[in-house]
Amino acid sequence: MDLYSLQRDLQIWGPDATEFKLERWSEGRLLWEANWQYEPFLSDLLVQSAQNLQVVEDRDSVWEYNEKIMMTIESRNGVKVALIPV
Question: A GO molecular-function term, please (predicted)?
Fold first, then answer.
């Protein structure tokens, strides 16, 4: 599924689809819109969060990748890390 395109679809979000607008999550929005969420700015959020970290520590005892296939592909074991703030 191409979430990048879906979450910037002008037919769904309007001509300002690439702008961050908090009111997109406000009450009264159509249910089908709420189910997909609006994530184009997720990468910005992750970068800003990472800038406030001193260390990302591996806490996983399992080194082999065990694939879990659903709508997307993910690690069956999850990811075990410690995030230590600045």
Answer: iron ion binding
Measured between alpha carbons, how far is 36 from 25 in angstroms, rounded to an integer?
A: 11
Count of other CB atoms within 10 angstroms of residue 7: 18
DSSP state of 60: -
- Note the pTM of the prediction, 2 decimals: 0.42
* Sequence spans of domains, the chain: 1-51, 53-86
Closest to 44 measured CA to CA, from 10, 11, 20: 20
How does pLDDT run across 47-82, given as a tens digit for each residue?
888 899 999 899 988 888 888 887 777 888 888 899
Strands (E), 2-52: none
